[in-house]
Design brief:
Rossmann fold; binds S-adenosylmethionine; alpha/beta; 7 strands; seven-stranded mixed sheet; globular
Length: 202
């Protein structure tokens, strides 16, 4: 997965993304956002905000920064009535243009399986989260006890052509992050293929 190919793939997805994925992920998305326990006045970063499907579910009074590599995905987000509390930025989640400890909460929905280097993108998101902050991930990960079989590799190649890698392991991605507690790791969809993970920063 590279930024150049992701730009091309998500340019193609942008006009149909909500129709294809909106309803399928809606309930899981709602549970993911609830797990963040957001309060009015807090700041939330959403790297890879995509078409903004999360935004209508964010509680009122939360200040949101949504960031994405794809101009066309962001253009779909802009079609919503966003209000003054939402700011959109075209940028790479692997190089966040924010100071350390800028946000109370971070939401990573379906993006660590997409960015070229999930470890770097996670590290950047973790850096911008303040001590005492919460991060929630909703994504598909290869189970820690499953090896990368030939069949999995083949499925992975097909999925990558569509803009996602199902073979990344959470442990590999979050390894080495300081002050991290896994507060929750639960199946979210398709018998645990998709997981909801909450990470708390001490
Ligand atoms: C599968 S979509 C998920 C969108 C949204 N988070 C959701 O839950 O519907 C992945 C998103 O990641 C974005 N993306 C891919 N590479 C990125 C990068 N390096 N930095 C920021 N966003 C990226 C894509 O443009 C796309 O909008």
């Amino acid at each position: 997965m590279r930024n150049a190919s992701n730009r091309r793939i998500y340019r193609a997805w942008a006009p149909i993304y909500n129709a294809v994925f909106g309803r399928a992920f809606r309930d899981a998305r709602r549970r993911t956002i609830e797990a963040l326990e957001l309060r009015a006045g807090e700041s939330l970063l959403i790297p890879g905000v995509g078409t903004g499907l999360d935004l209508p579910m964010i509680p009122r009074g939360v200040h949101v920064v949504g960031l994405d590599l794809s101009r066309e995905m962001l253009a779909q987000t802009s079609r919503q009535s966003l209000g003054p509390q939402v700011c959109l930025i075209e940028a790479d989640a692997q190089h966040l243009p924010f100071a350390t400890a800028s946000f109370d909460a971070v939401l990573l929905n379906l993006v660590l399986s997409v960015v070229p280097d999930a470890g770097i993108a996670f590290g950047e998101a973790w850096r911008t989260l303040r001590p005492g902050g919460r991060m929630v991930l909703f994504d598909k990960f290869r189970p820690e006890d499953q090896s990368l079989t030939a069949a999995r590799r083949m499925i992975g190649r097909i999925a990558e052509a569509l803009g996602t890698d199902p073979n990344r392991r959470l442990d590999d991605i979050i390894r080495g992050a300081a002050q991290l507690t896994v507060a929750r790791d639960s199946p979210a969809l398709l018998r645990g293929t998709y997981r909801l993970i909450r990470l708390d920063k001490a």
